[in-house]
Amino acid sequence: SRIGVLNSHFPSDPMASEKEAALAAVPSDSPTIFDKIISKEIPSKVVYEDDQVLAFRDISPQAPTHILIIPKVKDGLSGVSKAEERHCEILGRLLYTAKVVAKQEGLDDGFRIVINDGPSGCQSVYHIHVHLLGGRQMNWPPG
Ligand code: TR5
């Protein structure tokens, strides 16, 4: 559970080491639902695509515009915390694509970019993705 995950950061939790192991075991190379979205096995509302990245509408939008931008080849990049130097180019391309898509979506007043990482960061799909959110006033701090 979410609370269990949070508790694992307290050394007094007797289950801490077990939970840490479970966290460490999140496999960065395992396929995710996004592989099937990339292959078009599962349909999605694609708003931008090139040879390296895919951008599609989030199935559970948290703002009038909510788009996910992902690399077509994961290459071990399940999240930012797994980034290696070889990923620098694709990491930059994900952000650049967010800008291109924001313009395409008419988000001229601004937008929010989010990358969740790991259980405490509320990541649920372990294939790196940039959330592009816009079309309403964002609040700070985020939840
Ligand atoms: O929680 P994190 O940051 O990992 O973001 C994962 C996002 O993927 C969430 O905002 C989900 O709503 C989104 N998601 C999950 C699925 C999905 C999707 N967006 C589009 N299409 C989807 N399909 C077909 N299936 C999903 N399980």
Core attributes:
alpha+beta, five-stranded antiparallel β-sheet, 5 strands, 27% helix, globular, disordered N terminus, binds ligand TR5, HIT domain-containing protein, adenylylsulfatase activity
Regions with little confidence, pLDDT below 50 for 5+ residues: 1-11
Bound small-molecule species: ligand TR5
Q: Characterize the biggest β-sheet.
A: 5 strands, antiparallel
Q: What level of helicity do the residues show?
A: 25-40%
Order of helices and strands: HHHEEEHEE
How far do the termini sit from each other?
Answer: 17 Å
Strand order of the largest sheet: 1-2-3-5-4
Beta-strand portion reads 15-25%
Overall, the morphology is globular
Number of strand segments: 5
What structural category characterises the helix and strand content? alpha+beta
Instruction: Compute the number of helices.
Output: 4
On the 0-100 scale, what is the average pLDDT? 89
Radius of gyration: 16 Å
Active site: 129
Organism: Quercus rubra
Protein name: HIT domain-containing protein
InterPro entries: Histidine_triad_CS, Histidine_triad_HIT, HIT-like, HIT-like_sf
How would the blueprint of this fold be written?
Elements: H1 2-7, H2 16-24, H3 33-38, E1 46-49, E2 53-57, E3 65-71, H4 88-104, E4 112-114, E5 130-134
Antiparallel strand pairs: 1-2, 2-3, 3-5, 4-5
Ligand TR5 is lined by residues 33, 42, 44, 58-60, 68, 116, 122-125.
